Each structure stands twice: as structure tokens, then as C-alpha cells.
Amino acid sequence: APLICEIIIHNQKDFTQSATVDISEKGVSIKCESNTMFEAGEENTITLIDTHFAGTFSVHATVMRVLDKPFRGYGLYFLMIGPQLKRKIAQYVIETLGLKDEEQAAA
User: Fold this and answer.
1) pLDDT digit string (tens) for 5-15?
2) Strand pairing partners for 46?
3) CA–CA separation, 31 and 18 (whole Å)
């Protein structure tokens, strides 16, 4: 589901501040001016700042892909995420995408 919020991504050595593009229960896409700081497979900590569905939260993630199109940035996969946070993200996705009742039961 589309999500625009500020995000900080770091690997204990380098960090960048950016913006999210979208989110799911499994990960997030972010847009960056430069996509050369992190590599595919690299583990990071990401902090999403002031989301309206879960406030500010941090999760461990891995860079699944470095993106050039349709925007420059990264696709990040959540490695460790608590069940309550995962439910909040799932509910946000369901509400945002307006899924039908039978699709909500499957989610």
C-alpha cells in the first residue's frame, strides 16, 4: 500500500534519511537520491518516523533489491518484526487498498 513518511536507514556505519514509497507486511520500498550506499543482501536497521497507523518504529531489514526504476532507492525486507506491528501494518494495507471482506479474511 502507498505510504509516504520519513525513514532513516543505517547499518551501524553509514546512514541516510529518505522517504518511503510503499509498505506491506513483509517490507518497504524507499526512495533515495543515491542508491549506492547499501548493497543487496546487506542488513540494516530502519526507522519509520511518525506513521499514522503505528507511530515511530524501528525494524531490522535486508536490502532485497537496489532500484533504479520507476524511482531510485531500495526494496527492503523485514527480518524481525513483532506480531502487533505486523498486524497494524496489515490493517493499514487492508484499509488503504479497500480490500473486500473475503480478501480481508485471507490477509
Assistant:
1) 999 999 989 88
2) 9, 59
3) 6
